[in-house]
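Hi R.,

As promised on Friday, here is the backbone we talked about, encoded as structure tokens. Could you run it through your design pipeline when you get a chance and send me back a sequence?
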């Protein structure tokens, strides 16, 4: 089980960091104008999914949503917590990873989430859970008291991609950080499990996991993790949520993720690439559905990066979040070369994305 789930794993350099970060932003940008539209409206405005391109806004800048904004907040917080700064190359490996403790990560995430809360560009229909929890974090209260305990919205796992790209983390650190960054705003166990599983999917793809092995490996990881409550990272969150047993608390989240993976696998057996992914798997407004639908979009097109983000953006659900995750997965698997340079150059936050990737990327 441990070997199938990805533990232990042999580290391989795949030049995936910029590919995954730019893929997230490109998917986010493609799904931004289609969110809240039905399939007929999307087709009338953008044509069939196979011909979708990157939408340009005024001044030929490609706008993104809070998905990219908060992913950058997570990534930059992790760089700060490990005593680095975006745009400055640092020594990689155990030194930076050792600095990423629950206390340092929580403090940095709180700072960057509050900064995002007051950013004048935070005007892209951000989720109410994130707004409410970040406002509470700003008041300085314990994060376990600030989080929205009942929320499992996709706002937690849409931003987790950078966690998978930090070099030198142990599997336990990666899981703990992925769940902690979710828990600061979304306290439901499914939000935690889906964020952990999303990060693990990105990590597996960045380290050479074959597409055909991805869903079995994710199922194995979820099964292995069902009763692991990362108390060092989560503290008394389970008790705050009223759960009598922390292991049962987190198992609920993993069980919902397992069911979502099964739904994606069943939809893939139909081999109907023309079907609305939100109808086939899930609309993606909640965490486990966003993950499962994004995985479906990646796999139904055979891993083609542009096809994955187009198929995800051309959907009737939470299209920007689904496409952001599909792009992050595709970029982790295929690297930067599949994202056209003119798309990357036109992206809002292109400089911040490049700077963050430069801190962690082996490509040089």
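Update: got your reply. Pasting your designed sequence below so it's all in one thread:
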């Amino acid at each position: 089980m441990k070997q199938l789930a990805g533990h232990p794993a042999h580290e391989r350099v795949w030049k995936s960091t910029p590919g995954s970060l730019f893929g997230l932003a490109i998917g986010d940008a493609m799904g931004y104008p289609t969110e809240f539209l039905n399939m007929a409206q999307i087709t009338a405005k953008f044509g069939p999914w196979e011909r979708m391109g990157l939408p340009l806004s005024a001044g030929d800048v490609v706008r993104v949503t809070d998905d990219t904004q908060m992913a950058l907040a997570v990534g930059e917080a992790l760089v700060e917590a490990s005593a680095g700064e975006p745009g400055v190359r640092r020594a990689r490996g155990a030194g930076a990873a050792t600095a990423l403790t629950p206390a340092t990560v929580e403090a940095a995430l709180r700072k960057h989430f509050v900064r995002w809360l007051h950013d004048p560009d935070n005007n892209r229909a951000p989720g109410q859970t994130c707004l409410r929890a970040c406002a509470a974090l700003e008041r300085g209260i314990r994060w376990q008291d600030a989080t929205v305990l009942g929320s499992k919205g996709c706002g937690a796992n849409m931003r987790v991609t950078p966690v998978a790209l930090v070099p030198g983390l142990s599997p336990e650190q990666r899981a703990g950080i992925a769940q902690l960054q979710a828990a600061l705003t979304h306290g439901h166990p499914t939000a935690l499990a889906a964020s952990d599983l999303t990060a693990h999917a990105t990590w597996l793809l960045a380290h050479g996991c074959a597409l055909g092995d991805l869903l079995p490996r994710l199922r194995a990881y979820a099964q292995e993790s069902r009763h692991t409550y990362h108390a060092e990272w989560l503290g008394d969150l389970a008790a705050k949520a009223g759960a009598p047993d922390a292991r049962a608390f987190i198992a609920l989240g993993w069980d919902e993720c397992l069911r979502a993976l099964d739904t994606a696998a069943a939809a893939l057996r139909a081999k109907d690439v023309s079907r609305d992914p939100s109808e086939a798997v899930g609309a993606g407004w909640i965490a486990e559905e966003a993950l499962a639908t994004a995985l479906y979009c990646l796999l139904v097109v055979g891993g083609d990066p542009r096809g994955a983000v187009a198929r995800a953006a051309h959907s009737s659900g939470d299209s920007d979040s689904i496409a952001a995750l599909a792009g992050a997965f595709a970029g982790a698997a295929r690297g930067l070369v599949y994202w056209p340079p003119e798309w990357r150059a036109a992206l809002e936050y292109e400089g911040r994305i490049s700077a963050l990737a430069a801190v962690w990327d082996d490509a040089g």
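One thing I noticed while checking it: DSSP finds 21 helices and no strands in the chain.

Thanks again,
M.
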